[in-house]
Amino acid sequence: MTTETRRDEIADGLAGVEARIAEACRAAGRAREELTLIAVSKTYPASDVRLLAELGVRDVGENRDQEAAAKARECADLGLTWHFIGQLQTNKVRSVVGYADVVHSVDRPRLVAALSGEATRAGREVTCLVQVALDDDPGRGGARPPDVAALADAVAAAPGLRLGGVMAVAPLEEEPGKAFARLRELAQAVRDTHPGADIISAGMSGDLAEAVANGATHLRVGTALLGRRKPFVR
């Protein structure tokens, strides 16, 4: 496939996603400017990230450090905002802090401490979102709703970190709108204590309209932009 052909494919995907976001905003009575589109580029090459940047996308999401670190280095000249959206092990924190501007998956105090230590060491400020578990699947990560407030307080107090808000993935066995409504309530409770924590990261290719309807500020979209996933090859 030529670069031009791939660019046309991505442009078509982006146009389709933007049309869906615009319709969701109209239905919810919201302005498009309230939403940040994060292009989730996992399993896709750095060349796709460059094409996305050419098309005006400024925010890129990754969920595996090995893949993300390499792409961030290759695309360092583009001035993009990098979002780490996958589950994060403490032994990967130093690497992630080296390139990630926003970490969406903060779900335990030990991770807060590790991120704070590495951000301070690197002289960086990293925006952190508290990942909320909206179901009982431990494999998907996230703090239980009763633990969210204390975890948000810990992030807000940690040197080198900025509390951005909350993140969640819709449960597989539940209507996304209902799940995102619960997230919206938790986000408001966090914002009541920390007024600057106004990010709600929710919504992916299949449920972005429901997320927009429930106050999402950041949408994490991959498949609808870039096509069906392929195994990542370095």
TrEMBL record:
Protein name: Pyridoxal phosphate homeostasis protein
PANTHER family associated with the record: PROLINE SYNTHETASE CO-TRANSCRIBED BACTERIAL HOMOLOG PROTEIN, PYRIDOXAL PHOSPHATE HOMEOSTASIS PROTEIN
GO molecular function, one term: pyridoxal phosphate binding
Species of origin: Planobispora rosea
Known role: Pyridoxal 5'-phosphate (PLP)-binding protein, which is involved in PLP homeostasis.
SUPFAM superfamilies from the UniProt entry: PLP-binding barrel
Modified residues (N6-(pyridoxal phosphate)lysine): 42
First and last residue of the signal peptide: none
Sequence ranges assigned to domain Alanine racemase N-terminal in this UniProt record: 30-228
Entry's family note: Belongs to the pyridoxal phosphate-binding protein YggS/PROSC family.
Domain of life (superkingdom): Bacteria
Keyword Metal-binding applies: no
Keywords: Pyridoxal phosphate
Record-linked NCBIfam families: YggS family pyridoxal phosphate-dependent enzyme
Cofactor(s) needed for function: pyridoxal 5'-phosphate
Xref: CDD domains: PLPDE_III_YBL036c_like (cd00635)
